[in-house]
Every structure is written in structure tokens, then in C-alpha cells.
Amino acid sequence: YHGVSPALIIAIEKGNIDIVKLLLEKGANPNATECKSGSNPALIVAIKKINIGIVAVLLEKGADPSIGFNTYDGTPLQCASKTGNDNIIKLLITKGKADVNAVDMRNCTPLFNAVKSGSIEAVDILLTNGARTDVVSE
């Protein structure tokens, strides 16, 4: 089931923040990638699990909020914007300094994803933090 995913990814999938913290303290790479579904980095795995605590720990321990750009989900902020989870979006922008105008392979920005999610809070956060409204998707 887990193939050869690093222990950190397995702990994130299980939602075990204490094990995530321990692994990171002992040198686990906060940018580790899973072995399945497009090799998403740890941060995107935590975002998909909607686990704000683990997202915060990963950012604190150096997870790169721009890694994942060439995966299906785009950047971590793009992935979070798809869920419309305003708390994770805020965290990525404030703690991770995520680029609110990063584009994915279809030229979509986090704002496109937030609009599609229907979350007015997510849209407002992105606009407040400089999201451009003039980008056109493919």
C-alpha cells in the first residue's frame, strides 16, 4: 500500500503529528515526496489531508511552499485553494510566504481554484494578499 514512501509521508497520511515532529527532529526531509500519485511533496500530502497542524510543523521545519509546481496539484497554495480551506491558505501565505500568483500547467492561479471551490473567505484572503485578477487560464 505505501510502497517505498518515506516514513514521514506515512505519518502524514495517518495524521500522526507527534510522529511527524519526531521524524523531522531526527532529520527527516520536510520536502520528502510520496511514491504514489504523482510524487506529491509532504506539504501537499498534509494539505490534502486538511491537517493544519502538520502543515504548520512542516513549514516551521523548512518545507518549501513552492515545491510541487510540476505536479498535477500545482503548488501547495494551489492545492489548498482547491479545498477552499482558508486557514491553510492563510498559513501558507503568512508562514510559508507562498506566491499567491503562481501558475500551474494550465496557467491557473490559486485564485482560480478558490473561486471554483466557492469559498468567499479563500478568495478574499488571496485578493487581500495581492492575487491578480487579470490572469487568463488556458
Overview of the molecule:
- Keywords: ANK repeat, Repeat.
- Pfam families: Ank_2 (PF12796).
- InterPro entries: Ankyrin_rpt, Ankyrin_rpt-contain_sf.
- One of its GO terms (cellular component) is cytoplasm.
- It is a single chain.
- By secondary structure, the chain is an all-alpha fold.
- Helix content is 49%, strand content 0%.
- The chain has one domain (7-128): Serine Threonine Protein Phosphatase 5, Tetratricopeptide repeat.
- The longest helix is centred in the first third of the chain and has 9 residues, at 17-25.
- It is elongated, with a radius of gyration of 14 Å.
- It starts with 6 loop residues before the first helix and ends in a 10-residue tail after the last helix.
- The model has no long low-confidence stretch (mean pLDDT 89).
Query: Fraction of residues in helices?
Result: 40-55%
End-to-end C-alpha gap: 35 Å
Low-confidence regions: none
The name of the CATH superfamily reads: Ankyrin repeat-containing domain
Strand content: under 5%
Structural class: mainly alpha
Largest sheet: none
Q: Any idea what the CATH architecture is?
A: Alpha Horseshoe
CATH class wording? Mainly Alpha
| Count of beta strands | 0
Tally of separate domains: 1
Radius of gyration: 14 Å
Give the averaged pLDDT, no decimals: 89
What attributes does this structure have?
Serine Threonine Protein Phosphatase 5, Tetratricopeptide repeat; mainly alpha; 138 residues; single chain
Please sum up the structure shown.
With 138 residues, the chain is mainly alpha-helical. 49% of the residues lie in helices and 0% in strands. It is built from eight helices and no strands.
